[in-house]
Amino acid sequence: MAQVLSQDEVDALLQGISGGDIETETDKPVAKENLTFFDLTNQDRIVRGRLPALEMCHDRWCRSFRTAMSNMLRRPVDVSMLSTENLKYGEFMRTVPVPTSMHVFRMEPLKGLCLLVVEGKLVFALLDNFFGGKGVSRYKLDGRDFTTIEQRIVRKVVDIVLENYENSWKPVCEIKIEWSRAETNPQFANICLASDDVVAVQCELDLEDSQGKLTFIIPYSMIEPIKDRLKAGYQTGDSAIDNNWLRRLRRRIQEVEVNCHVTLGHCRITGRDLMNLSVGDVIQLNEDTSTPVKVYVEDVLKFHGYLGSHRSNHAVQISRAVNPPKEGDESE
Does the pTM exceed 0.70? Predict the structure, then answer.
């Protein structure tokens, strides 16, 4: 049984503690530099890690938009992705000069608005290229707005940007992009609160003699429902097939000229008969007149058919196609 202190012993113990005769444990203060402070009332999101699939979407957009702009301007255009950055929306908007062509658009079924920012000098470089220039003309950007013609040219480019942007998202999420409005003053291009986190993807458009930047601003709250897909590695599959590239490849292949010839038959003759051949002699082949002839494409047997004529020219009517032999089967 534990020993119980008497009243006299308790009084002596308390008197020794208060007088300093008995040492007690002391709480040593912890250095503040070793502490991490958390504000539990702060509603800011903590964005961690990269989004590989999102970067792949924009890299895919760069390739498709490069082809579209080169076809439109009839000259080589290079498009490359410069950076992907997480920051506050207000912090980004403070860096946007005036005038700048800004376009607000939706990405259904994702909730919220996105922003496409086209640098002012890029707008004038595109305008110069559209009208036959090289994009090296100098324009005074300060203190002026875009004219109606300039806005229409930019809108045509923005439509191509958003069309390719919608296709670039298909491997990750099926979206439908809808253009909302255009702004030139950053104060009126509010797609979210200044304190909200956004993903800024900056791309550069190189027009040989001039360059400019396009920036996609995507609120983090919009892509948060699909962040698991965006954090996952890029999966190559049937959904990732570039249909535009396939169509161009198929069209180019169909335009390739190939050598096609028809074999009527074969025969074997002696050297003496070969030396005695003269004009008017008849060489008998080992094929019957009713036997289909063989049609070769680049020395590969592809069809059987029958001889005839068409518009005073010799012709062959295809009767059947020859299926390619399976592996291990050498028969025709």
Answer: no
